[in-house]
Fold this sequence. Notes:
Blueprint: H1 3-20, E1 30-38, E2 42-49, E3 55-62, H2 63-68, H3 72-84, E4 93-98, E5 102-107, H4 115-121, H5 129-149, H6 185-189, H7 196-211, H8 221-230, H9 243-252, H10 267-271
Antiparallel strand pairs: 1-2, 2-3, 3-5, 4-5
Helix pairs in contact: 5-7, 7-9
Amino acid sequence: MELPEILHFAQTVMLTLITARGEKIGLHHFSPIRPLGCGDTGSVHLVELRGTGELYAMKAMEKSVMLNRNKVHRACIEREIISLLDHPFLPTLYTSFQTDTHVCLITDFCPGGELFALLDRQPMKILKEDSARYFWFNIFVIIDIVKQSLPSNRRRSRSQPPPLFVAEPITQSNSFVGTEEYIAPEIITGARHTSAIDWWTLGILLYEMLYGRTPFRGKNRQKTFSNILHKDLTFPSSIPASLAARQLINALLQRDPGSRLGSTTGTNDIKQHPFFRGINWPLIRNMSPPPLDVPLQFIGIDPTAKDKKWEDDGVLTSSIDLDIF
């Protein structure tokens, strides 16, 4: 058994011991260590299971915010998707519970932090091509795993999995899921969309990792959307990138979804692209990342920090009951 599997087993056992005593796992079983990040509906915290030393990440989604922004359905689907997944590239959902104010998901703690934080620390905020390829194909594999695990995909062909945007109900609104610079043209125009939107997003991601910015960024949302729909794709000559990398980006950023790489026979088209020549896909979980100009800065516990309580940060403030579970 490898070290990650041992840690996963230990964390599972510790939580199982609590439920075996007849207790219902809740916020009081965890001590807050430090905040890890925040999003549009809540925050993520590094937490410790009291008395064990075991560390987890806790995503706390604020109920009032989810109600105000119509995100309740999305939260339900997110929890369902995570609970279905079991892969070393993905964080495990160990348990979930509600407080008066929050819905909390307890998952693996990933001490390496966020990819964009790592990218921001690199010279010129770009990755060398080997590193960009490594992180990109790991994300690509994760997306493929998630797609094939979605309940709605059981009735679909493997070559035509549903888009990850399935986690957001389709409504006539001006709101969008995700960062606007990554949104595919068919989302902007309101056209019927398929899993091809995910390949567009990955094309934008690869471009940003190699060039330090997204290709269609404008001075405001309206200009960004206009660029996505009409601006020519260009590659800065000041930053070297291989022909294969530029060809892959161009193939993923076709405005016509039917012409986009991956839209016909799915992931196999992408895996066979020359950019991935030499990659042994069945063995990628055993690959080591290439060296970075600025290495990972692992997140840990500050031994000098004072003990915190949930109430100290005002995390729990109001009382709302949601039918999430």
